[in-house]
């Protein structure tokens, strides 16, 4: 098998890559779980993003440092952070030869934001003016509009977008997969579009989406953008078991795997050597407090609990030392992350913690710890946390509440939890705003925490054009959330993957762009 | 006998309605909101959730939902799952995979199992018998996932005799290893049942009579003893065929075969009523049919059994 691949690729490099050759010729395979949708606006799943980010060129994309840079756009600019003028690069084409214009973006966004279409990423358009009229709060009301009043097509290549509020992070939001354009053919038959998307990106679909098996992509010959593929195509294979995907990677029947099961990591590091892929991700675990339960109202109690969590020890015991103990509310891949922003509040110090705990008046009753059954590791580290709470703070009655993953978020939304709960956040786009506003903002947070000062700082940062100044303001808001500690940061996840020696130049970013498939070289 | 067959087939009708309603009700009773669960932790506005709930009739009471489902079914429409995929399309491809896997495993059980059983039964108390008994005990004792992973690593990864996973190589290559793993437990039971039943019957009066009449050994064993001994084996093989069709979740997972077992498992977690009901109903019908065939086979094996 390996010999066949090698022979085929040797043949390819000899003749310089012309004509139709076998399936393994210049293409590679990557493994993941089955995506839910391929229509960009209908999904928030990273498995879908794996494929979508190759099929579509958004207006903006992210560079290696996580900054927004133009992709399908020539420029995205605003004077007041509220009205944005977007110039679309002329001459781009969809995979069906249709021209990519300002209208293609407006159409896609209107389709996504219209409530009755039931698109999964609908909420990501709520920043745009006119969203409210398309998504009435009242249960029986019909939407008054089916297009976003804030999106105006000025001419063939110019869009003017008016937002509800000044929002300096809008260029970053434009990198989110849901903001991809749609051709007319897609609007005509959205169901077929979901099965076989017609994008404007460096790759196009090669046949239908073979559900639960694979999605084949080939390089799009009409692509004019900066992401010209260095290979002929990529096939995303679906796996229902991460262990099996790893075995396939080891057997050489899979070229790239972004997630190796944690139990296999020590072995994989040895077997794959410099083909082992590692790095910090944008997903961070937290422990939230239900502040609507007045037993958790005292900030000192929350600080004390944060200080008896041995982040480093848990990282070693549960994650083979591969994760990154949190020293801030933000992962270090986010511009605006400050080393040790959390300071002693995120440092294991049982004596100091006990002091704060006593000062807060201790804890009455049973402490219930909530987590889902999505990963076995949750129960492992919760047990370590519980032991520490027992030994160091003297909380005797501790109970574990392991909730089925399908129920977990419904439970949190209904505020049915009676104690600290595990929670994580995965960046939609690398901005402190994405974490802070979604997880701590008074309108969004799950803890029932309210801080006007925090909200005002976030709003001010959202109005600020200068990114450095904006980050300074986000950091000030972050400091308030750290001080009050309604939700404890725990650790950032690590990417642990690998690739075969059939491929080279494999980069996996910690953002929604994921694997940079177009840069992969095939031997 | 035909009246008997028709009667049995008619009995399938109430069973069909009973199981569909029962399963629909059980999925309905699962806690959690399937639409909310689809979004995970990302925000979804209330009006979008409402749209989706309306689209999939989730706001209706149980019986109305069930009635709408059955009305669709009467028109040949199995409905959609909550990402808008048609259930018949979803299950169609998966039944093909499951049927191939189950048949491979079942044939393995049938051929090798009976052969081993006969071999051991004819040599009761000798080395062959001990080997078969010991070997099958070992297989029964080891959980299927251990067997599956070991087989995958040894035959797929190290020796590369079989593909490690997936269906790319088609039938039979992709299905041989998972089929053998899946069928190994059943094989052990078939071998033991055959062995015991055969050994027992070999001491029966009619065998002695047959031998005394001077019939050849092959005829005594093949035509008389084995045929009689196969009644419990056939019963087991019939029931097990149903099990293999529906119960291969672990094997399907290890070998990345997108079969029905996996789908049902996933859909129960996602609370996808139409998918679970669709898959399980077909399973129930297969069970009914196989059992009917088994009952009819009794008559072939033992002419004293007749159906009116």
TrEMBL record, chain A:
Note the Gene3D superfamilies from the entry.
Dipeptide-binding Protein, Domain 1, Dipeptide-binding Protein, Domain 3, Periplasmic binding protein-like II
This protein's superkingdom?
Bacteria
Q: Which segments constitute the Solute-binding protein family domain?
A: 69-445
Pfam families (alphabetical): SBP_bac_5
Task: Give an example GO cellular component term for this record.
Answer: periplasmic space
Q: Which GO terms describe its molecular function?
A: peptide transmembrane transporter activity
One GO biological process term is:
peptide transport
- Name the UniProt record assigns to this protein: Peptide/nickel transport system substrate-binding protein/oligopeptide transport system substrate-binding protein
List the source organism: Actinomadura livida
From TrEMBL, chain B:
Q: Which GO terms describe its biological process?
A: transmembrane transport
- Keyword Protein biosynthesis listed? The answer is no
Q: Which domain of life is it from?
A: Bacteria
The segment(s) forming the ABC transmembrane type-1 domain are 95-298
Give the matching CDD domains. TM_PBP2
Cell location: Cell membrane
Entries under InterPro entries matching the protein: BPD_transp_1_N, MetI-like, MetI-like_sf
> What PROSITE patterns does the record point to?
ABC_TM1
Annotated membrane-spanning segments are: 12-30, 97-119, 131-155, 175-193, 233-255, 275-301
Membrane topology designation: Multi-pass membrane protein
Q: Which key words are in the record?
A: Cell membrane, Membrane, Transmembrane, Transmembrane helix, Transport
GO CC annotation terms, alphabetical: plasma membrane
- A Pfam family annotated for this UniProt entry: BPD_transp_1_N
Q: So what family is this one in?
A: Belongs to the binding-protein-dependent transport system permease family.
**Protein name according to UniProt:** ABC transporter permease
């Amino acid at each position: 098998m390996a010999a066949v691949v090698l022979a085929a690729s040797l043949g390819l490099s000899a003749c310089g890559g012309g004509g139709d050759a076998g399936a393994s010729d210049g293409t590679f395979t990557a493994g993941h779980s089955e995506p839910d949708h391929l229509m960009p606006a209908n999904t928030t799943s990273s498995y879908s993003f794996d494929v979508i980010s190759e099929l579509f060129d958004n207006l903006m994309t992210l560079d290696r440092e996580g900054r927004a840079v133009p992709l399908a756009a020539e420029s995205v600019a605003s004077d007041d952070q509220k009205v944005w003028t977007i110039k679309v690069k002329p001459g781009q084409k969809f995979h069906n030869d249709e021209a990519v214009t300002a209208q293609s973006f407006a159409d896609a966004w209107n389709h996504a934001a219209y409530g009755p279409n039931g698109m999964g990423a609908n909420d990501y358009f709520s920043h745009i003016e006119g969203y409210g009229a398309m998504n009435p709060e009242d249960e029986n009301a019909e939407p008054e509009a089916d297009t976003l009043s804030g999106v105006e097509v000025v001419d063939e290549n110019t869009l003017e977008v008016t937002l509800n509020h000044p929002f300096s992070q809008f260029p970053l939001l434009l990198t989110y997969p849901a903001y991809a354009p749609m051709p007319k053919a897609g609007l005509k038959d959205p169901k077929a579009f979901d099965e076989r998307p017609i994008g404007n990106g460096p790759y196009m679909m090669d046949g239908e989406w073979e559900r639960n098996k694979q999605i084949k992509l080939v390089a799009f010959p009409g692509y004019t953008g900066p992401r010209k593929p260095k290979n002929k195509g990529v096939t995303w294979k679906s796996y229902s078991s991460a262990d099996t995907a790893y075995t396939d990677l080891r057997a050489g029947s899979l070229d790239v795997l972004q997630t190796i099961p944690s139990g296999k990591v020590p072995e994989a590091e040895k077997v794959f050597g410099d083909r082992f892929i590692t790095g910090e991700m944008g997903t961070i675990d937290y422990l939230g407090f239900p502040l609507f339960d007045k037993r958790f109202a005292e900030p000192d109690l929350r600080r004390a609990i944060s200080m008896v969590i041995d982040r480093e020890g848990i990282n070693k015991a549960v994650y083979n030392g591969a994760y990154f103990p949190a020293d801030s509310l933000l992962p270090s891949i986010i511009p605006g992350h400050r080393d040790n922003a959390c300071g002693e509040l995120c440092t294991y110090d049982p004596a100091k913690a006990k002091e704060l705990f006593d000062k807060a008046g201790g804890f009455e009753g049973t402490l219930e710890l909530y987590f889902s059954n999505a990963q076995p590791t949750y129960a492992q580290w919760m047990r370590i946390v519980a032991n520490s709470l027992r030994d160091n703070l003297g909380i005797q009655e501790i109970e574990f509440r392991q909730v089925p993953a399908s129920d977990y978020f419904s439970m949190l939304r209904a505020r049915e939890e009676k104690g600290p709960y595990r929670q994580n956040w995965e960046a939609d786009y690398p901005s402190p705003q994405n974490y802070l506003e979604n997880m701590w903002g008074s309108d969004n947070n799950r803890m029932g925490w309210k801080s006007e000062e925090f909200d005002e700082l976030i709003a001010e940062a959202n109005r600020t054009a200068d990114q450095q100044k904006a980050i300074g303001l986000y950091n000030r808001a972050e400091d308030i959330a750290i001080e009050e500690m309604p939700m404890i940061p725990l650790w950032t996840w690590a990417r642990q993957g690998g690739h075969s020696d059939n491929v080279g130049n494999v980069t996996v970013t910690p953002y929604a762009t994921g694997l940079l498939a177009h840069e992969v070289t095939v031997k | 006998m035909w009246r008997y067959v028709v009667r049995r087939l008619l009995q399938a009708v109430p069973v069909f309605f009973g199981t569909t309603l029962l399963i629909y009700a059980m999925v309905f009773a699962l806690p959690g909101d399937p639409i909310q669960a689809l979004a995970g932790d990302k925000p979804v506005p209330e009006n979008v959730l409402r749209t989706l709930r309306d689209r999939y009739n989730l706001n209706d009471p149980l019986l109305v939902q069930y009635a709408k489902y059955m009305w669709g079914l009467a028109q040949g429409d199995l409905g959609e799952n909550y990402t808008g995929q048609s259930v018949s399309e979803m299950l169609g491809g998966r039944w093909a995979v499951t049927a191939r896997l189950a048949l491979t495993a079942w044939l393995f059980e049938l051929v090798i199992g009976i052969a081993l059983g006969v071999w051991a039964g004819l040599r009761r108390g000798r080395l062959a018998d001990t080997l078969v008994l010991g070997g099958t005990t070992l297989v029964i004792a080891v959980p299927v996932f251990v067997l599956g992973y070991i087989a995958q690593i040894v035959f797929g990864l190290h020796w590369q005799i079989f593909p490690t996973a997936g269906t790319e190589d088609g039938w039979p290559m992709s299905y041989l290893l998972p089929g053998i793993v899946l069928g190994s437990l059943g094989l052990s039971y078939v071998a033991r049942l055959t062995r015991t039943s055969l050994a027992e019957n070999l001491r029966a009066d009619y065998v002695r009579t047959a031998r005394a009449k001077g019939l050849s050994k092959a005829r005594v064993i093949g035509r008389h003893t084995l045929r009689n001994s196969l009644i419990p084996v056939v019963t087991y093989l019939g029931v097990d065929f149903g099990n293999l069709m529906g119960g291969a979740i672990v094997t399907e997972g290890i070998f990345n075969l997108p079969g029905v077992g996996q789908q049902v498992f996933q859909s129960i977690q996602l609370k996808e009523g139409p998918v679970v009901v669709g898959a399980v109903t077909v399973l129930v019908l297969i069970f009914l049919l196989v059992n009917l065939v088994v009952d009819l086979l009794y008559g072939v094996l033992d002419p004293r059994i007749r159906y009116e």
